[in-house]
Inverse folding.
């Protein structure tokens, strides 16, 4: 009986597998793969590296010379083993392709490419060596061709598992996530959720790499979910030790803020169309999402700083982080200067909204505004301009919204402004102006939304807020506080005892208020036939003493250093924006500082102006301790106050975003030149908060001494 060699067995197996592979490729659409074949298919990525490396070596071996470096039996067995492995990898690949969700076009190319590799490897076994040796050109072309086939079609396999951009040059992912929309239109998904997914999730669930059949690269695919639905919320909250935790432990993990954003967004139903504007401003999701900055945002894409254009009378801000467009608001008309407007010429092409309400404008100011070529929204309410002064606004081709409250309207001159067809909305409130007076224009331009009339014969409207026209909130001796409203015939009510103003019991404003102590002024306007306005309030702080030197014993966080120690004695309040450079922020340590007076000074009261924003992990000051010293070395305790009950009263339903003062009274004592203050932060955020267990922030922008 003739002995059957292993070489013959292997060659016969090739004669079975390769024709079978061809049939599978042709009829793959009708192929059903059971669990066992699907399991066998999982070996495709495990085995494929062996035939790739062997194939590249064999093609090089054939190309260079094909001299008998190896003995012919060994050489033939090596070629046959390579061909068998290539065929098995192709077979496993067909099995695995039936159980995954891959790009069909790439999969088709990779499938036939795998078959080509198998057949070329088989050809090396079938064609006699003498045939290659007698044809050097054919041998070299075959070697080069085989290398190219292996590289091209195995790369397609890489694209199936790692995405179409596998081996592409690095890209700045964050540039792709910037949504160029105004805050009034941008959704929570666009502002924060999408950048988080792109930075932390699409490496496994994006492009053509789709683990668990879940893709997170588009709204449609997120809605579709994976083969087990969308388990995103469940997986991101699993322990890091759990193999199902997302992202995988070796990948970039979600920060606490990112985890809170995704969680709250999903708990609200994962609404892909929910705008930031639609959320309550005190809602923690609004606070977190509006302040979110993608972690990979780099300096190359950061906007130029706008601090040079800002002042106590002008606010110049980007539409949103990452935008190039700018919104401008002017305040305090009594301090207005044309120079403030001229200063904006350097950024005029970026300005899309401009609010000049109550500014005493002249024709020269309008000429400057006419140069803001990309302006979309312009508010000229109660600016004392005349309709003829603004005829040049026709040069603003992108202007869509125009407010002209308080202006006497001439129909012909108004028509010359709206006739070019750019304006979509116009507000025309004025004493004695009725909708019927503009019926001809309203009928002629139906695409424009007109809001007309002060007397509002059609409906009841809500009054605009009054304005407290005192820029300084610091009382050294006394301060005069005027309250104004642009509408004639209103009744202005106010309180200075922390009660809410009402139309019956509260004092009626008749003359500017004179304040000489810590006071919160609340005011509201009323008029018969109108809904009352919202309450406007402003707190004025008594500060009769000024420290000469401040020494910070503990340093604030580098992101919130303000102007150093001078931040809390410069009489500039930070308002609600803790990122504007006017606050000192602490979280990892208590806030400790020393105030020094040139001469010994007796303190009776110290007021700390602080920010509370629980959605951004900013909690109330927990306690304040005051110590004093005659020599700046040895200190004695004077007074301490505990405010921890404020934080304890908060619950998960409580979303706090406000400025609050913390006052500490000091019992009569001697005068000292040195005072040391220790402000303790909350060391562990409560369990109901997304940041549970971590230290809370405290923010202080001013300290007042009396």
């Amino acid at each position: 009986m003739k002995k059957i060699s292993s070489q013959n067995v292997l060659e016969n197996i090739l004669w079975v597998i390769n024709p079978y592979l061809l049939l599978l490729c042709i009829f793959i659409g009708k192929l059903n793969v059971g669990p066992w074949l699907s399991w066998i298919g999982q070996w495709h990525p495990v085995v494929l590296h062996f035939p790739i490396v062997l194939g590249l070596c064999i093609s090089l071996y054939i190309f260079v010379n094909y001299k008998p470096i190896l003995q012919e039996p060994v050489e033939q067995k090596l070629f046959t083993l390579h061909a068998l492995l290539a065929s098995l990898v192709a077979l496993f690949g067909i099995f695995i392709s039936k159980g995954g969700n891959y790009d069909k076009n790439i999969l088709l190319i990779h499938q036939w490419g795998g078959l080509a590799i198998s057949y070329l490897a088989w050809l090396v076994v079938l064609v006699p060596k003498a045939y290659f040796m007698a044809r050097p050109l054919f041998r070299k072309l075959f070697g080069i061709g085989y290398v190219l086939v292996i590289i091209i079609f195995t790369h397609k396999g890489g694209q199936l598992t790692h995405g179409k951009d596998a081996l592409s040059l690095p890209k700045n992912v964050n540039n792709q996530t910037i949504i160029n929309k105004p805050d009034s239109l941008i959704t929570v998904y666009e502002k924060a959720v999408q950048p988080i997914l792109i930075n932390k999730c699409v490496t496994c669930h994006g492009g053509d790499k789709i683990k668990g059949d879940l893709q997170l690269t588009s709204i449609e695919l997120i809605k579709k979910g994976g083969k087990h639905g969308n388990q995103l919320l469940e997986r991101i909250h699993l322990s890091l030790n759990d193999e199902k935790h997302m992202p995988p432990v070796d990948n970039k993990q979600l920060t606490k803020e990112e985890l809170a954003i995704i969680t709250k967004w999903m708990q609200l139903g994962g609404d892909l169309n929910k705008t930031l504007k639609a959320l309550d401003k005190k809602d923690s999701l609004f606070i977190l999402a509006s302040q979110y900055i993608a972690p990979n945002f780099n300096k190359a894409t950061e906007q130029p700083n706008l601090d040079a254009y800002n002042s106590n009378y002008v606010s110049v801000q980007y539409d949103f982080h990452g935008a190039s467009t700018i919104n401008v608001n002017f305040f305090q008309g009594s301090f207005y200067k044309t120079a403030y407007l001229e200063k904006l010429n350097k950024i005029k092409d970026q300005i899309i909204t401009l609010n000049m309400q109550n500014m005493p404008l002249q024709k020269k100011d309008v000429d400057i505004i006419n140069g803001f070529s990309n302006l979309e929204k312009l508010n000229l309410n109660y600016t004392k301009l005349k309709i003829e002064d603004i005829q040049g606004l026709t040069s603003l081709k992108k202007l869509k919204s125009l407010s002209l409250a308080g202006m006497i309207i001439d129909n012909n001159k108004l028509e010359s402004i709206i006739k070019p067809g750019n304006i979509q909305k116009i507000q025309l409130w004025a004493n004695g102006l009725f909708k019927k007076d503009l019926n001809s224009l309203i009928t002629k331009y139906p695409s424009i939304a007109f809001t007309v009339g002060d007397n509002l014969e059609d409906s009841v409207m809500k009054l605009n807020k009054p304005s407290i026209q005192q820029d300084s909130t610091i009382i050294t001796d006394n301060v005069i506080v005027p309250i104004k409203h642009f509408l004639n015939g209103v009744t202005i009510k106010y309180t200075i005892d922390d009660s809410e103003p009402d139309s019956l019991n509260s004092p009626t404003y008749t003359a500017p208020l004179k304040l000489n102590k810590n006071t919160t002024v609340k005011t509201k306007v009323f008029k018969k036939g109108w809904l009352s306005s919202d309450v406007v309030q402003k707190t004025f702080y008594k500060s009769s003493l000024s420290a000469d030197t401040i020494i910070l014993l503990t340093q604030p966080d580098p992101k919130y250093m303000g102007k150093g120690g001078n931040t809390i004695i410069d009489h500039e309040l930070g308002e609600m924006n803790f990122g504007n450079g006017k606050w000192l922020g602490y979280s990892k340590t208590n806030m400790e500082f020393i105030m020094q007076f040139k001469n010994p000074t007796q303190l009776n009261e110290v007021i700390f102006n602080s920010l509370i924003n629980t959605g951004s992990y900013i909690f109330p000051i927990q306690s304040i301790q005051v110590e004093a010293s005659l020599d700046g070395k040895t200190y004695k305790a004077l007074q301490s106050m505990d405010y921890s009950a404020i934080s304890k009263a908060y619950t998960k339903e409580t979303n706090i975003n406000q400025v609050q003062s913390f006052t500490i009274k000091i019992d009569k004592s001697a005068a000292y030149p040195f005072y040391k203050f220790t402000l303790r932060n909350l060391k562990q955020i409560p369990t109901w908060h997304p940041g549970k267990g971590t230290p809370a922030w405290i923010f202080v922008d001013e300290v007042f001494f009396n």
Remarks:
- The first strand starts at residue 209 and ends at 210.
- Residues 170-180, 297-301, 454-459 have pLDDT under 50 and may be disordered.
